[in-house]
Design goal:
single chain; 496 residues; mainly beta; twelve-stranded mixed β-sheet
Length: 496
């Protein structure tokens, strides 16, 4: 805990244990302020005028100083002397390259705040005022450009405007309608619950969007256009939402202590489920078999227990009753945090920390396929997914210093390493991982992660064996100097 602007602030960090690397990886950061009037902790989602620092032996806040110490940021050191910063507003975690010139870690790392002179602060304030005037001039130029664009649209015929409208994606379409009266005439209002979207040509060719929640607002990032959209979930009374999984455009959402529902963010449809048997804060992963529009849909939740054991809480939509299977593996299968199961060939498959598989069969019993051997020396991060009717596993080294992909040969019960994905693109995150046929030739044979360099999405190219950012020639050394969108999930753009 520490003090910020006269408030008591508590910093919570979720850490994922990496036993093969003997260190902890940050995978969640939350900051709370104490409301003394109600004696309740509330999430702090902005602190524009200050930054928070913490280490093993010190915690404090200080005033933001331009780009050197940015407001709404939480700064801290972790393993290998990597320096992290977490932004309270956009929920992104940035990791910098290790400081190789520091001594071995037999010492504690401690953050300290030097005494800045008043003259330095005054100079910084004057500089900020000058930047503000420059920004205002830039806004005025933008307004003139908008007027010019509207005039150019007015010169196009209705037939051409109609063709343009049909080739736009959702939010570009709504922006198109706002240009002028002619655009609204050729582009009718969206009827969300109808099949009118069948008339649009490119929705099956669009890559997924990255989704994350901030209180009641769900945010979507279009990684190719580098744009962000926000959407409220109506008809659900809750202060906060948490996304667990997504498939075929449907998301599994948690709210309150034990409430859960399916939500299609594009059709706005909600399918409510009976309250869970236990509190939602113990759920670590989730999977469902098919679209919840089908009564055959089965949803499973995974709750970790002690010494590698876990519970599977599941419900079939046709009977609407929660059941629980207690799984005791005696250490034969150890699950990693946020490694989601996969529904494959009629059963739910689980990837263990040591590369072996477990199967939840026929919703009745759990079996460990213990004859599979670990394909990697290090399991820093792993993902299981289906690709063109086969099971794939993806293993990522420490800070993504390497990436390896394996295909399950069911006849030999062995992981076979792949060097190429053909026309497939993989989308990986802690809450959803899946493959898609590349929506454009340049996206084939790539793996996209929920990480950014600036506004550019990061991907790993199996052609170059390097990390790059989409739309640039920049090459990166793994995850260093990039930002991770925490608690995020890939969502396919589907309306049913």
């Amino acid at each position: 805990m520490t003090e910020y602007s006269g408030q008591l602030v508590m910093i919570y960090m979720g850490l994922r244990w990496i036993p093969t690397e003997v260190h902890l990886e940050p995978n969640a950061v939350e900051v709370y302020r104490l409301d003394f009037s109600r004696m309740e902790w509330e999430i702090l989602d902005s602190a524009k005028d200050a930054a928070l620092f913490f280490s093993d032996r010190s915690r404090f806040s200080c005033a933001a100083v331009g780009s050197q110490i940015e407001g709404s940021n939480v700064y801290f050191f972790k393993e290998k002397f990597c320096f992290y910063s977490f932004n309270l507003e956009d929920k992104r975690l940035h990791v910098s390259l290790p400081y190789s010139n520091l001594p071995p870690s037999r010492f504690y790392l401690t953050c300290v705040m030097p005494d800045f002179r008043k003259d330095d602060l005054d100079g910084g304030i004057k500089e900020m005022k000058l930047e503000t005037r420059d920004v205002l001039k830039h806004v005025e130029i933008k307004e003139e450009n908008v007027a010019e664009i509207e005039g150019n649209f007015g010169k196009l015929s209705s037939d051409i405007l109609s063709v343009i409208a049909r080739r736009l994606i959702l939010h570009d379409y709504t922006s198109f309608r706002a240009v002028n009266r002619t655009c609204r005439l050729v582009a009718p209002p969206v009827q969300w619950t109808s099949t009118s979207w069948d008339e649009f040509e490119f929705y099956d060719l669009l890559p997924p969007w990255l989704m994350f929640c901030q209180k009641r607002v769900c945010n979507f990032i279009d990684p190719l256009r580098r744009t962000k959209y926000s959407m409220n979930i109506h008809d659900v009374s809750s202060k906060y939402f948490r996304i667990l999984n997504s498939k075929d455009g449907w998301c599994v959402m948690l709210h309150g202590e034990n409430s859960i529902f399916f939500w299609n963010s594009f059709s706005k449809k909600i399918i409510r489920l009976p309250d869970m048997l236990h509190r939602c804060d113990s759920v670590v992963s989730c999977c469902f078999s098919c679209s919840p529009n089908s009564s055959n849909c089965v949803l499973i939740l995974v709750r970790t227990g002690g010494e590698g054991d876990f519970d599977i809480e599941f419900i079939s939509l046709d009977d609407g009753e929660w059941l629980t299977l207690v799984v005791v593996t005696n250490g034969e299968l150890v699950l990693q945090d946020n490694n989601t199961p996969v529904f494959f060939d009629g059963n739910f498959y689980f990837l263990g920390m040591h590369g072996n598989l477990g199967v939840f069969k026929d919703l009745e019993f759990f079996e460990v396929l213990d004859n599979l051997h670990c394909p990697c020396e290090s399991l820093y991060q792993s993902h299981l997914l289906e690709c063109k009717g086969e099971l794939l596993s993806v293993f990522v080294g420490p800070f993504a210093e390497w990436v390896r992909i394996f295909n399950l040969d069911s006849s030999k019960m062995a992981w076979i390493e792949l060097e190429h994905l053909g026309d497939q693109t993989l989308y990986l995150s802690h809450f959803s991982s899946f493959s898609m046929t590349a929506t454009s030739p340049d996206m084939a044979n790539r793996i996209y992660f929920p990480r950014f360099s600036g506004k550019n999405i990061m991907y790993y190219s199996l052609d170059s064996k390097k990390f790059q950012s989409h739309g640039t020639e920049d090459v990166f050394r793994g995850f260093y100097n990039t930002n991770e969108q925490l608690q995020s999930c890939w969502v396919e753009l589907k309306w049913r």
